[in-house]
Hints:
Elements (H helix, E strand, L loop, with lengths): L18 H19 L6 H4 L10 H21 L12 H9 L9 H20 L7 E3 L10 E3 H27 L6
Antiparallel strand pairs: 1-2
Helix pairs in contact: 1-5, 1-6, 3-5, 3-6
Amino acid sequence: MTANQLTTDQSAEAPAVTGEHADLLETLAKHRDFLRFTARGLTDEQAGLRTTKSELCLGGLIKHVTAVERNWVDFILQGPSAMPDFTSMTEEDFARREAQFRMLPGETLAGVLDAYAEVARRTEEVVAGLPDLNTSWPLPKAPWFQETEWSLRRVLLHILAETSQHAGHADIIRESLDGAKTMG
């Protein structure tokens, strides 16, 4: 199957997810849970607080991981046209991207978590219907990509790595906020 023929199973009864697909989704779900757990019991104000020297806050991290996962699942379905040309981003583009890392006025932790749950459901549906994780797409233009294309497997591993990395960041931020930890 070529990337242009990539579709997902849209049947009313989705097949049971097994094998590598199931392993990837199960591991991703575990790391999503770690990230969500760091926000347990927080107010909207607490979710927006910077507790370290970093610009990061818990709500902003969850927003960022949500956007990353949404964008890469769009890439799985549509290829590089789903992503911008990162080499031609403007200051306004970068400002919008940086806003992902903050809780903006009017945003709530519940809303951020709901958006994350919706993206997770979509990812799980898409991955469950992928016929072949070896299908590859050319990567969008970006100074940080050394490779020229990624398989769908590599995209999913990137989503997993991003989620795991930011769950660790979130744990540090939460511990700095009130001493609570995800583990230990």
